[in-house]
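ok, trying the design again with the full structure, not the truncated one.
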């Protein structure tokens, strides 16, 4: 099905920020009092839902907004690239006539800097600073702002929480296999689409 509105997550979907997240984890753990992750644990944890990871490191949900703000501050001066192929993919989607939007947990300043002004201007609507468990409301706000119905909308993300948000808002979910979560964990939640290559996203408006 071609979609009229394509909403993107940023980190792990458009932006290759996982290495930065892994390197910043120790600073965040020390600052907010949760457990460090050993390098040998990383790949296993990538296959677990966010709630299990939080339980594993002893991070209560009430601390999550504080940690997210600290993470966004640490990222302000970091050089975070877009994944290879994102530039032409976004150009082709826009040229097809689809509306593009962004719903991200990251701060607006980071999102705009990482995407660059050209891509930022492609977005019909932006919702930044959302909790990883609060994206459903941001997707709904995006629908209202653009006037596009849920049946013609898809949210593209890289984590199981993104799938929960999409389904809660009544839109399709497209999982990308190059982000924070493993492909196997994403397959288990049965997304409407599973993308293994960035260029495959251009089929969303075919």
């Amino acid at each position: 099905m071609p979609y009229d509105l394509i909403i993107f997550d940023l980190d792990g979907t458009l932006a290759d920020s996982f290495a930065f997240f892994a390197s910043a984890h120790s600073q965040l753990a020390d600052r907010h009092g949760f457990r460090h992750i050993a390098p040998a644990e990383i790949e296993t944890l990538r296959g677990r839902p966010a709630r299990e990871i939080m339980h594993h490191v002893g991070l209560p949900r009430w601390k999550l907004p504080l940690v997210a703000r600290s993470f966004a501050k640490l990222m302000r001066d970091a050089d975070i690239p877009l994944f290879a192929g994102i530039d032409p993919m976004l150009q082709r989607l826009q040229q097809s006539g689809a509306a593009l939007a962004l719903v991200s947990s990251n701060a607006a300043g980071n999102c705009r800097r990482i995407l660059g002004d050209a891509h930022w201007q492609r977005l019909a609507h932006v919702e930044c600073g959302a909790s990883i468990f609060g994206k459903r409301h941001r997707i709904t706000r995006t629908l209202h702002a653009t006037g596009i119905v849920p049946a013609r909308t898809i949210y593209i993300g890289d984590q199981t929480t993104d799938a929960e948000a999409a389904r809660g808002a009544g839109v399709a979910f497209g999982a990308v296999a190059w982000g924070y979560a493993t492909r196997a964990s994403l397959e288990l939640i049965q997304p409407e689409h599973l993308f293994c290559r960035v260029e495959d996203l251009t089929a969303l408006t075919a």
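Keeping the full-length input from now on. The first strand starts at residue 5 and ends at 8.
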